[in-house]
Amino acid sequence: MASASYIHVTKRYPDGDLALHDVCLEVADRELMVIVGPSGCGKSTMLRVLAGLEPLTDGVIKIGDRVVNDVPTRNRDVSMVFQNYALYPHMSVFDNMSFGLRMQGFPAPAIEERVVRAANALGLGTLLGRKPHELSGGEQQRVALGRAIVKDPAIYIFDEPLSSVDAKLRAEMRVDLKRVQKGLGTTSLYVTHDQVEAMTLGDRIAVMRDGVLQQVGRPKEIYDHPGNQFVAGFIGTPAMNFIPVTVRGRLAKAKAIELELPCPSAVDRAVLGIRPEALSLHPQPSLPTIEIKVDMAERIGGDQLVYGTAGDDAIVARIESNLNVSRGDRMRLGVDMRLVHLFDVRDGQAYM
User: Fold this and answer.
1) Beta-strand runs (E) in 126-265
2) Across the strands, what pairs with 243?
3) Based on the domain organization, do 253 and 181 belong to the same domain?
4) Among 89, 222, 275, 279, whose Cα sits 20 to 30 Å from the Cα of 3?
5) pLDDT at position 290, please?
6) Phi, psi of 91 (to 5 degrees)
7) Is the separation of the CB atoms in 274 and 339 below 8 Å?
8) SS3 of 349, please?
9) CA distances from 107 to 95, 101, 112, 138 (A)
10) Same domain, 209 and 291
């Protein structure tokens, strides 16, 4: 097993496009690190430079204690799973999973032992004789995963492997991936644009934007203590409410909102961040409140999302689904100030 290290890594393409800028990231041995961010943020490039598919412009990549900047892909001891399964249609599941080992000259008994072990771990033990067209999408994805597992690499890298499957199957595959990764105990880097996938899969997550690493931490840490406004808005569904405010000591004011902050702030202008679940319909007497005019309500399982406005500011609240809410209603919502954040109006950095 091995760790992976990005040390001041920069990747600039010949056309001048800066894909990664001074990235420093340590992925611990046996850790599942999820790299998340919007399209074009550089997350797939993170995997490609680790695998040796893209050369660095600057910096150092290490696998374990070995610097691998100039090491060819085939000698880096990494195994890759991509969105495109790339299964050979004329080969059986067994032959697809064993192809790489045969190309490396492994003896037949060792190949069979590895393939059967991986297939059983992935629930493919009874499907080894089938061809890809006889499998469901989820089974094909498991074969692609099994093809990587049999190589027994130091590091697995996954580039949005579930993005082409439907929501129900994606949820099932997340469970499978997490179970298999923990069972194997192998260091893994997983790229996705889906923040729900990141939050449920990762031991830690790394949030990226425009080639710059924004924040690294455990999912709950990132959610509870976002380092800046971008991270706060990207992580969490629905997204955090952002309200421009003026600040005087502990008092934050917008056109129709006035809240007392837990501690005084030295800034006079900021952005107030309130998660939808920080708003409650039946507030305790001790909670400050805001009033919204309802634009729309939608039920999602056991919850209900209410969209409205407070003055000029859009507000989303998550409340109980059994309450009848109509357009034009006025609602007074309690604000749990423990879940409120304050961000710099200029650079988006978090104050609290």
Assistant:
1) 155-159, 187-192, 204-209, 212-217, 241-253, 258-265
2) 272
3) no
4) 222
5) 94
6) -105, 150
7) yes
8) strand
9) 14, 9, 9, 30
10) no
Q: Give the domain range for residue 332.
A: 241-344
Question: Radius of gyration over alpha carbons of the chain, in Å?
Answer: 24
pLDDT confidence of residue 350: 93
Beta strands in 52-209 (DSSP E): 58-63, 66-67, 78-82, 155-159, 187-192, 204-209
Q: Determine contact, residues 343/229, Cβ cutoff 8 Å.
A: yes
Q: For residue 331, give the CATH number of its domain.
A: 2.40.50.140
User: Which secondary structure element, helix H or strand E, spans residue 270, and what is its range?
Assistant: strand 269-274
Q: What percent of the chain has pLDDT over 90?
A: 61
For 117-126, 214-223, 342-351, which range has the lowest pLDDT when averaged over its residues?
117-126
Does residue 1 register a pLDDT over 70?
Answer: no
Show which of 211, 234, 257 is a domain's final residue: 234
Clarify whether residues 194 and 309 are in a common domain: no
Of 273, 277, 257, whose CA–CA distance to 319 is shortest? 277
SS3 28: coil
Identify whether residues 222 and 259 lie together within a single domain.
Answer: no
307-329 per-position pLDDT tens digit: 999 999 999 999 888 888 889 99
Lowest-pLDDT choice from 147-151, 188-192, 270-274: 147-151
Return the ∠ at Cα 345 (arms to 247 and 41), rounded to 5°: 150
Q: Which residues pair with 15 in a beta bridge?
A: none
Average pLDDT score, the chain: 90
In contact, 275 and 224? CB cutoff 8 Å: no
Residue 161 shares a structural domain with residue 284: no
